[in-house]
Structures are given as structure tokens and as C-alpha cells.
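Hey everyone, long-time lurker, first post.

I ran two proteins through the pipeline my lab uses and got sequence/structure pairs for each. Pasting them in order. The first:
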Amino acid sequence: MANDMLWAKGLPLDAAIHRFTVGDDPWVDLALAPHDALGSAAHARMLARVGLLPEADMKALVGALHALHDEARAGAFTIRPEQEDGHTALEAALVERVGEPGRRIHLGRSRNDQVQLALRLMLREEVLKLGAQAVELAGAFLDFAQANATVPMPGYTHMRRAMPSTFGLWGAAFAEGLLEELEALRGLWARLDRCPLGAAAGFGVPLPIDREYVASLLGFSRVQRSPIDVQNSRGRHETATLTWACSVAGGLEKWLWDVALFSTEEFGFLALPDAFTTGSSIMPQKKNPDVVELARARCRELRGLAKQVEEIAGGLPSSYHRDFQLLKRPTLTALGSFRELLDVLTRLVPVLKIRAEAAARASDDTLYAAHHAYVLVGKGLPFRDAYREVAHQISDGNFHPDRAALTATHLGGAGNLALEQIRAELSTSRSWLTEIHRTLAECAGRVWQL
């Protein structure tokens, strides 16, 4: 068993220690395998370019890695427990398929920067997918807002009726929030857009490697220069990515809370389609909003997983430590859970049913108290006096506002939702994501081309 390891020196290895140190890497690393294959192909091309690998060996390796990449994407690549991790399994597969060149692939790198590159490539891909999903969900909120722009509903503060609102104003809020998150995504992308390969164990290598060439091949705009910082950043980029995801989820959690509340019999403003509800094993009448509740729980789960990543990565000296191995599972779990959350909400928003009559009944005259105070201000009364006058009218039961007297027509108000402006900015984010995806696909194509 010990001789299967990349670090094997022919010494004995305790089986229990092996199981403990390997952990669940043989399963977790399957998600990184296609990225590891792509990064390894770029590495082989670089070695050939600088004269450290024969051209024929490079072509054999790139061809085999392309096949392994496709197998990993299709779920056909396997990692045996005795192989310890995906890097070992990948190199073993190369030796099996192309022979001696497979034993040359690890020249000029360590598993430390190899896994960093695979993780960076994976995070880039996931961020682009999540960004595209956020765009689609924002579009769904915009469509909802547009379709219900003038349908009235109460606006709440402190969970109490406050001012008149509309379902359009409510829906537009979540589109706007996602738009801001998409703008923040560019900052996250800039952090991920640097190639770590060449750092090796954290101190570089005494070989004439070309780190800039590898970065260019893989579509990175720059090299992560400091080899020590490459190792220090293990966990930093995972945390940054999950922090962004948690921020997105924080806004969506508010929407989910609203839906859960507004769809109760006591409110009755909203209704879920039957296909989005579940039943009770004892109460025949129940149609439970389990999807809303579980989606809300996913938002909290994300925060827990992000905190787990932060705790594992924190409190360590500089450079590499085996602790980092435990970062992979919570990171991948969080990303998968977040993808499912965005997918489910994008399906839910368009089919959410509005019960306009119930919302209208809840929109009583007291919602227009501030509006009526402004009417009095328009007649010359100072605002504080108008405020008190309206308070007295409400207290005395003589409050009868003209609901149509005033409307918020300023930018973003109920009378000016600026939906087309939001849609145009959303289109800009979509184009940015599409262009990056296209560029990276072209880069991968060039890596594989023989």
C-alpha cells in the first residue's frame, strides 16, 4: 500500500494512520479531477516549452490527460483508497496509459501547488456558474415585479403595517440586491484570477519554469507571485467565495421568510402551487411549504459551512499544513448546496401566486398616515405639526386619507420602479460572465489541442 503514494520511500505505513490521514479524499477529489487534469496538461506544455520534457512525451501526456479529463467529467474516473488522493490516482493513470512520460509529469511542482491550481480552476468554474444562476434568478424577480408592478400590498417595519407598497416594489428589491451581488462578484473574480502553479511546496523550484506561460494557457490574467502566499491563500479564496455566496443567500433568506409568512392563512397574500408543497402524514388538509423552509435552512447551512472553512484555515502559521485537506469537503458541499438553492428559487419565483384581494384588505387607511401628513405639509403646515395632526386623527377615529393624493414617483419608488434600468445593468453582468466563460473555454481548447 505505501508504495502507491507519491511520497513513498519503501517504508512501512500503519493502516489506521493511513485511513485517518487519507480521510475522504478519494471521494472528495473526484470533483477536482477534471481540473487537475487540465492544470496538469498546461504544466506538461510548459515543461516542454522550457526544455524539461521531450515534445513527444508532452503530446502523449496531454492526450492521455484529455481522455482522463473527459472521463472525470463523465464520472468514470476512480480513485482507490490506497492511492490516497486524486493527484496520486491521476499520475498512476498516466503511467498506466503512456508509461515513462507519466513518471515525468510531477517535475517542477508539488502536490501543494497542484491542488491549489485544481482548486482555483474549480472555484473559477463554480463562480461563473453561480453568477449565471444569480442572473437568471434576478431576471425572474424582475419579471415578477413587472407583472405585478401596481398590485398593492402593505409594507411592514417591525413586522407591523407601515406604508403602502406593491408586489412590484417587493419583487424589484430582490432583483436589485442580486444585481449588487453580481457587481461584487467582479471583485471576487479578481481575487481568483491569479495562477498559483510554480509555487511548488511554497518556496519555488530551482528550475527554469515559465509561470507566466502556464497562467496564460489557463486564462489567468496574472501569476500569484509569492510562493509562500500561494500556500497562505489556501482557505482564503475558499472563504472569499463562500462569503460572497452567504451574502447572496442573506438577501434570499429574507425573501423566503416573507413568502413563508405571507402564504400563511393569517396573511393569505401569496400561495404556492401544489407542486411546490408537501403533505402531512397525519393531517389530510395540510399543504406544507417545505421547499421554502428547506431553502431558508440552506441559507443558514451556507453560513455554517463558511464558518467551518474559516475555522479550519485560521490559527495556523504561514506556509502549507495538512490541516488544509479538511477545507475541501465543506467548500464543495457549500457550493453544491448553493447551486441547488439558486435553481429551486429560479423555479419558484415565476409560479408564486398572488392573492390580490387579501393583500388589498390588509392595506388599510393607516398605511397612508405619512402620505396624509405630506398632504398637510403641501398646504403649508410644518411637518412635525402635520405628523401630530394625523396622529390625533387616527387616535380619534377620524382619519380618512385620500389614498390617491400622493405616490412615490422618485427613482425606485412604487411609481417609478426603474425595472428597465435594472434589466439593462443585469444584461451587462450577463455579458461579462458570458465573455469570461467563452475566453476560458477557448483557453482549455488550446491546452488540449495537439
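...and the second, right after it:
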Amino acid sequence: MKMRTRVLTAFLLGLASPLWSKTSDPAPEVDVNAIINESYQFLRNREPRMTATEFSLYETIVPMVFEQPDYAMRLLETMISDDEPESAAFEFILGNLYFVQGRTVSAEARFRSALKRYPEFRRAWLNLGVLLYTMERYSEAIPCFTEVISLGDQKARTFSLLAYSLQKSGNPLVAEMAYMQALTSEPGNTELIEGLLKLYLESGETSRAEAMLKQLIRLNPGDGRNYLLYANTLYDGGRLLEAIVMLEVAAGLDRLETDGVLFLANLYAKMDFHREAVTAYGQVIERDRELGVTRSLIYAQALIAEDRLEEAGELLSGMESVVDDETRALHLHTRAEWLYARTDLEGARRLLEDLVRLDPMNGDALVRLGQVLEIEGNLARAELILERAYQVQETRRRASLELANIAVRNRRYEKSVAYIEEAIRLESSSELREHLERLKSLVSYQDLETTNETME
């Protein structure tokens, strides 16, 4: 009798889970120095002007900021320590210098003072918004970026900062509009597309998220993260085969990093593609990556399913000391499957009994225990155990088939018919339907026998 085993779906739930929670948080990058550098050139007729004295200071001090920032700031603060208020333009310059120095409180105060004196100072609105953005005060940054746009700034960068701030403030609808506006200026900007992707994933708009992922792959086919994200999205939607195909495409292009190979291995195991799972887990190990206890046990199950019992035994032999409460049930089950495959029914039964004491409604363990008891000839106890597995939705069909077999052995054909009908309801097949017809014939024959005996 050749005994085979299958990877246990109940233990795999969550193991092929995303390697990233949905996607990494793609905050638009802000080059503060670049923005500040742009701010040192004033726009004629659109921004306030400095006084002659301030302009003299500006020409003297600003060139020093890049080479001797601390000295430049001390010199500047000494020169402006009198009681005469600075112009809006000079307040803006001071705000920029404080910003670069990381003195955010002083920078914010200078920017706000400049805007109070000159409310249409566009770059002061922008730099204040960027300051608040870098401090993660997104709801306060929103009106700043909105004002910048209303004053004529149509750059993709500004819309991107506004979009992300809206997104972080819980306003996805307007954030989407801002991202879209930014993309009209820079349709190939992957940072913007990633922002939209995160927005769609968070709101559960899978079809739109897929469109963004396809675009990312088209724009940057060499970035393996996009294939992994796409597979992740497909997995979340229950489309496991499509997720496998996406990862296999990435692997074929040599764009799948170790995390991706591990994800693929988990998916293979979950789909009971044992040979492929064994190969993928082997590739992860070859890359010197630790599988961890849970995935090592699943790897062992795949090896068992492929009748590579010696390798599975070697893998299991060193795991007793690293098993904890969280992985104990899976360890017991895997060792039981290994013993079952080696036809050590008594050893398998003892471990399975330990497991069902630990987890009384573990459907996979109950089905296997019932099968062992049936082989050993203990049909009454096997039936009791399988009735428990029948109550677990994930194993109801398998338990139905085992209970139908026991009912036939006990010549209870009507009961067997009921179990087969339930199995067909859960998942039909031509073989089961043919089997059902044969059983119904046996029921009819049994009824006829009963009638004849009664007449006699």
C-alpha cells in the first residue's frame, strides 16, 4: 500500500501573505535644498522686494550659507537684532536659512510672518507647505499647497505633495484628483503612479490598482518589486494561479529577489504544487536564506508529498528544539504525515491523537486520524472522528468521502448516498456522479432484499 500525503491548507493560510503590507508608503520625495536654492532668486513684479540694506546683507550672507552655514547664521542674526522689522522678502530668506539648519520652529515663524505681510507670496506658501510636510503635519500643509496652486503653480511636484497630504489626511477622493492632475504633466512619473496605486489598494479598488501595476511594469520592466506587488494584489483577490504566473514571469526575467521566490514557494505549497514548492524552497535555501520554523515544516510536507522521505526526515530531525507553542500543532502534523508516508500507522496515530487533543477541531488532522483508524480496522472510532471533521467546513468534503466509504463497508448504502450527495454539492465530478448512481442501485437492491425477507 503506497501512502501519499498532501500539504495542509489550514496551516498555509496566511503564509503566502504579502511580503509588503500592501505597498510601501510612497511619499513623494522632497529635495529641500533644491527648493531652498530656487527660493534665493526673486521673481520680479510677483514677489515682495527687500530694502537696500537687506539686499546688501543678502548678497553678502547667502553665498556663505553653502560653505559656512553656522557662521553665516550667527552673523545674520547679529545684523538683524535691531527693533526694525524685516521685509516680507527678507523674512522669507530667513525662513529658508532656518529650514536648512533644521530650526523648524523659527523657520515656520518667519514664513508665516512673511505671508502675513504679503499674502500672495507664492514661494513662501510652497516652502511653508514643504516644511509642514516634512514634519508630517499633513492637514496643515494642505491649505499651503492649495494656495500655491491657486497662485499659478501647476508643477507636478506641487500636485504630488498636495495629493499625498490629502491621502494621509483621509481624503482619498480629492487626493486621487490631485494625483491625476500631476500625471497630466508627468505621465511617466512612477512615484505618482505608486501614490495612486497605494490609494487604490487602500480603498479596495483592485481593477484600478491592477491598471497602475501594469503601467509600472511597462515603464520599468526591470524593477522586480512591481511584479511582486502585482502578485500580491492578485493573491489578496483570491487569484492564486494568476499570482503564480506573475511571479513565474518575473523569475523568467531574472527579476525575482529572494523574498519573491519565497512568496512563490508558499503559493505553490498552498496550491498543492508539491514538486514546484520543493524546487522553490530549495532555491531560497541556496541563497542562504533562513526559512524559519513554519516554512521549514511546510517545505518538509512538500518533500513528503513528493516521496522524498529521507530528505524530509533530515529536515524534521533537527526541529524539535526550535518548535514553540505557535508551531507545535504544525510540527505534530508534519511528523505524523511523515510517519504515515512510511506506513508507521501506530506512530502516526499517536501523534495525531496528541494533535487533536491540542486542537480538537483541526479538520486535516481529524481526517488523517480517521483514515489511519479505518486502515487499522477500527471503523466505529474512525466514524466518530470523521464526523468531527465533517463539521469543519474546510474538510467537510473529504470527510464526506471517507464516511461514505465506511458506510459502504457497513452495508449502510442510504447513508453512503447522503454523504456522496453532500460531497457532490461541495464539488462535483463525473466520477462521483457515476459512483452515486451505482450506490443508488445498491440501495434499491437492498430495499428489494428487505422486502423479500419481510414477505418470507
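Reply from user beta_strand_b:
Welcome! Quick read of the second one: Residues 261 and 280 are 6 Å apart (CA to CA). The domain at 31-166 is CATH 1.25.40.10 (Serine Threonine Protein Phosphatase 5, Tetratricopeptide repeat).
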